[in-house]
Specification:
Length: about 230
């Protein structure tokens, strides 16, 4: 088979302590999965079924990068999130089996053009331009689950220029990681290489050119990036 042009490389994420890299298949994101964030977005934190949106696989951006301030927005927001990396193929996964699909965990940031998101929401239109832009998924190297064990609690936090903006605990997720895997697998065939951004706690807010952003999840280290001047 000949290709009409060089397709470039499949996007990948580093794996802690290894030279092998994790090839990214798809990026799924969960909306409003912490009660305090659901409230700050004007939503109802009751336990409605989780909802999902996606980012393109090549939105992944390595920790330590300088991220360009994206075009067509005046309100770029940070959203610190625990990311689950999927290591097996499956659909209609049973709750008791869900954890076996986890390859590992990382810290990610679901960068959002909030002004475009609110305009889309008010017009009943899709979120794609608000969520799925270039460099919209900064992420740390992935820790294998064999090294961390199951992550069901632990602090999640984010600072901008050393000022604390977001601070919560993974135990406050409305939908647990196994529940997210079960629900997502009723919509899509999960594949090795999928990443799931599991939602952000309250405290989301704007980023300006030149801002230094750090964020972490207990056991998983720190995600750092800078917004370009
Ligand atoms: Mn998010």
């Amino acid at each position: 088979m000949n290709l009409a042009f060089d397709p470039g490389h499949r996007p990948t994420v580093a794996i802690v302590g290894e030279s092998d890299r994790f090839p990214v298949h798809r990026i799924y994101c969960v909306g409003r999965n912490y009660a305090d964030h659901a409230r700050e977005m004007g939503g109802n934190p009751e336990r409605e079924p989780p909802f999902f949106f996606t980012k393109p696989a090549d939105a992944v951006t390595e920790s330590g990068s300088t991220v360009p301030y994206p075009p067509r927005t005046a309100n770029l927001h940070h959203e610190i999130e625990l990311v689950v990396a999927i290591g097996r193929e499956g659909r209609d996964i049973a709750l008791k089996d869900a954890n076996a699909y986890i390859f590992g965990y990382a810290v990610g940031n679901d960068l959002t053009r909030r002004d475009l998101q609110f305009a889309a929401r008010d017009a009943g239109r899709p979120w794609d331009t608000a969520k799925g832009f270039d460099h919209s998924a900064p992420i740390t190297p992935i820790h294998r689950i064999e090294d961390t064990g199951l992550i069901e609690k632990g602090e999640i936090w984010l600072t901008v220029n050393d000022a604390m903006r977001q601070r919560s605990n993974i135990s406050d997720l409305i939908w647990s990681i196994p529940e997210i895997i079960v629900e997502l697998s009723t919509l899509y065939t999960l594949k090795p290489g999928d990443l799931i951004f599991t939602g952000t706690p309250s405290g989301v807010g704007p980023l300006q050119p030149g801002d230094e952003v750090q964020g972490g999840v207990e056991l998983l280290g720190t995600l750092t990036f800078k917004i370009a001047d």
